[in-house]
């Protein structure tokens, strides 16, 4: 007897579930022994699994972030790799409700020309986003490798683990930009948006944090909006339904591609229902888009919805992703 044919939405859920860039996040289970006893009393810290790590300093908080760039991008497009190292770090600081202060990089390049292109990309993106490159390390004559780390300041942090059942799921992004096709589709606003606006965009995250308009945030990264939301859900120990009909999307990008696209500016957030309008307004004032796209619940499952139908992407109660969330 033939198996019943999947609906289009169920088939899409299966594609998201089996996406290689989501599967790669499972390797984060390797860091569990490192972070398991980092908090007071030997347990995990509140920011375990977040986009950045918080460090108390001089009566305030610093947020520390780091990114390693995939060697394939570094080989194929050294300039873009340099830019990505800056943008990814800035997004991580912003997702924590912070302001980036300075960045350092470590670069290994096969030759001077390759290194110059990477450093050009680093400098270009840092100038666009208003973050200082404070130093770094360079080695020539070996296979390429690039990492960067950024320090930021934060007054009121946003923790992914703070999302609660009953919160509204918000998706914030910039729809001004262009799609860069490839194995990892990237939607970038960096060449289409005024630099003054790019530097101000991240202040929306600071505002929703400091005004306590949102409880939790995570930047939308390599796994796309659904995969990044799943990472947040695992840390929070709850579930959510992502309403695809309400999801903000550039008109030129089809819905299926958008779900797995890495935007240069994109975040999933959790807000109490009474805070939603004010939270969305913080982005709208900066000509960004933020919209309610579903709700958090106690199920520990990620579902997608469209046209009145729902389909389960991942049930964290049955199968962990990274293992960094609550047991």
Molecular structure report:
This protein has 11 helices and 15 strands. The chain has helices spanning 8-17, 20-23, 32-35, 71-76, 78-95, 112-129, 195-201, 203-210, 224-236, 255-259, 276-284, and strands at 53-57, 60-69, 99-109, 132-140, 145-154, 168-173, 178-180, 186-188, 216-219, 239-243, 262-263, 266-271, 289-297, 301-306, 309-315. A hairpin with a 2-residue loop joins strand 14 and strand 15. The longest helix has 18 residues, at 78-95. The relative contact order is 0.17.
Keyword list:
single chain; seven-stranded mixed β-sheet; 327 residues; five-stranded mixed β-sheet; 15 strands; alpha+beta
- Main β sheet profile: 7 strands, mixed
Low-pLDDT stretches: 39-44
Oligomer: single chain
Rounded to the nearest angstrom, the distance between the terminal CA atoms is 39 Å
Mean pLDDT, to the nearest integer, reads 91
Helix- and strand-based class?
alpha+beta
Question: Could you give the count of β-strands?
Answer: 15
- How big is the Rg? 19 Å
**Helix segment tally:** 11
Task: Present the secondary structure layout.
Blueprint: H1 8-17, H2 20-23, H3 32-35, E1 53-57, E2 60-69, H4 71-76, H5 78-95, E3 99-109, H6 112-129, E4 132-140, E5 145-154, E6 168-173, E7 178-180, E8 186-188, H7 195-201, H8 203-210, E9 216-219, H9 224-236, E10 239-243, H10 255-259, E11 262-263, E12 266-271, H11 276-284, E13 289-297, E14 301-306, E15 309-315
Parallel strand pairs: 3-4, 8-11, 10-14
Antiparallel strand pairs: 1-2, 2-5, 3-5, 6-12, 6-13, 7-8, 9-12, 10-13, 14-15
Helix pairs in contact: 5-6, 8-11
